[in-house]
Structures are given as C-alpha cells and as structure tokens.
Amino acid sequence: MAVPKKRTSISKKRIRKNFWKRGGYWTALKSFSLAQSISTRNSKSFFV
C-alpha cells in the first residue's frame, strides 16, 4: 500500500533551490560573456 513521504524541511528545500538557481546564474554569465566577446570581435573560439 502507498505510504505518503515525509515532508522535506524548509531549509533543505531552500538549499536545493539555491543550488539549482546557481547553475542557471553561471550559464547566463558564460553566455553573456560569449555574446560580449562576439560583439567586440575578440572571440578566439567562436567564428562568425
């Protein structure tokens, strides 16, 4: 028979959420940096 799971604590939930958000922050930062280097034509790894 199915048994309901225990509730996750608020602090654990917040930690997981912040960890997930941090990954998105670094991805956005890298993409912005790449776009900036392409617009100034200083990119060495991306050819237009």
How would you describe what is shown here?
- This protein has 48 residues and is mainly α.
- The protein contains one helix and no strands.
- It has one helix at residues 10-39.
- The longest helix is centred in the middle third of the chain and has 30 residues, at 10-39.
- The termini are far apart.
Summarize the topology.
Blueprint: H1 10-39
Family: Belongs to the bacterial ribosomal protein bL32 family.
GO cellular component, one term: large ribosomal subunit
Main location: plastid
Features:
ribosomal protein; rod-shaped; structural constituent of ribosome; mainly alpha; plastid; chloroplast; 48 residues; 0% strand; ribonucleoprotein
Largest sheet: none
Secondary structure tally: strands: 0
Name the helicity range.
55-70%
Q: Mean pLDDT across all residues, rounded? A: 82
Percent strand: under 5%
Query: Cα distance, first to last residue?
Result: 60 Å
Total count of helical runs of at least 4 residues: 1
Shape: rod-shaped
Taking all Cα atoms into account, the compactness measure Rg is: 20 Å
Structural class: mainly alpha
Unreliably modeled segments:
none
Name the helix and strand elements from N-terminus to C-terminus, one letter apiece.
H
